[in-house]
Structures are given as structure tokens and as C-alpha cells.
Write a structure and sequence with these properties.
The chain is α+β, with helices and mostly antiparallel strands. It contains 2 helices and 3 strands, in the order H-E-H-E-E. A 3-stranded antiparallel beta sheet has the order 1-3-2. A hairpin with a 4-residue loop joins strand 2 and strand 3. The radius of gyration is 11 Å and the shape is globular. The relative contact order is 0.26.
Amino acid sequence: TNIELDYAVDAEVQHVLAHEIRGSASGDVTRLLSSSNQSLIDVPEWVGETDIELLTVEEHGDHSAFYVGNA
């Protein structure tokens, strides 16, 4: 089952997100939504510190969608 999360990623939820993503099946994709421009910097840095893979980023004007996978 794919897990789809719609969270604004900040320091308070990163640990929870990492736990949820790691608990998903290998190959599952999680979408993180954020309206903060800072997330374009923070999410890739955060993912780089974990075993979670950043698959792609889509910018939609008022928000960004980060697709991450559980390797």
C-alpha cells in the first residue's frame, strides 16, 4: 500500500515523517507538500541525512511537492 502524506515539513515533524516513510514498503512513494520556499532547501538537506531517497520535486506556484521513496 502506498502512503501519501500531505505535511509541511519542519523540524517538529521530520522525525515523525522519517519514521512513517521507513515503515512503508520498499518502493512506496510518499508525497510531501509544503508552501514554504525554505523547504526547497530544507527537504533535500533533510533527506540527505537519512536513508530516504528524494525522487523528484514539482513546483506548483503556491506550493512544492516532494516525492520521496523508501529504498
